[in-house]
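Pasting as-is:
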Amino acid sequence: MAVAVVAAASVACGAQGRVSKGVEPKVEQSAKVVDSLPNVAFRVQRASQMLDEAAQREYYAEHFWDEYDFADSTFVAQVDNTLMMQTLLTAVALSTTPETTPDYLTKLMQRTVVSKPVMQYFLTMGEELFYDPNSPYRNDEYYIPMLRVALESGLLDEYERLPYESDLRIVSQNRVGHVANDFELTLASGQRISLYDIEADYVLLFISNPGCPMCRDVKEAILASQLLSDMVEDESLKIVVLYPDADLDAWHAAKGDYPAAWINGYDAEQTIEAEELYDLKAIPSLYLLDAEKRVMLKDCVSVELIERVLLY
């Protein structure tokens, strides 16, 4: 996807964690980014290169979609989906900072409600880009405003609403800056403790499954981190390994795979899944919490990102 997707990687920033922070387009890059956009049947007017970066972002936020007809439902049936998602990513990258992206996506989705097929098309793009666990751009904070506009539009019938209402319930849990949901963990000894019983400056919640290759890779990355090892040793950080599934034979067989200094347990009553306390569709998953169990990073798999946050 060349220059446009390199620039578009700026949508994948900090708040979420599963995605990696990209390089935001600089002033001198924006013309190249616009010129590299695929032909998706509408033209994007370049911002003047005399403008500074903030002014260019403001220009694209106001004018990127000027020549796109949001009422044309035939367009979304004909356009190449991959190229259109590239265009959406590029619009976000050129028009916003990570802090302003949710508001931008709210306003963009509000423009789509003139046509139900167009609104559903943009919502589907948002789902694939910002909610699919395999997307490098995954970020719940970007999907939430798109869901809200669609659900408030009045265009979806009761059956069409159901999956999006479910998505909104799940992504609204454990948001960055909010207190994490509590749950009960059963240890190998049979003792039960709650997440909130664990006292430390920081808690790293590691949702994992036995036999999961990526879980093993994340575990090894944690063990290789000198910062995390030192913090575990001085007890300023406690690592909690949570097995959320029902096959306890698998858990017991693998319980010795984690260091004794880590708190390793399972959800005996399957409460987390039943009450949708955490999003379990993508495992492994890491949540970094502060002393008050407030979420600092959500659904993360990058130990490097966790280190950066702890060092700030």
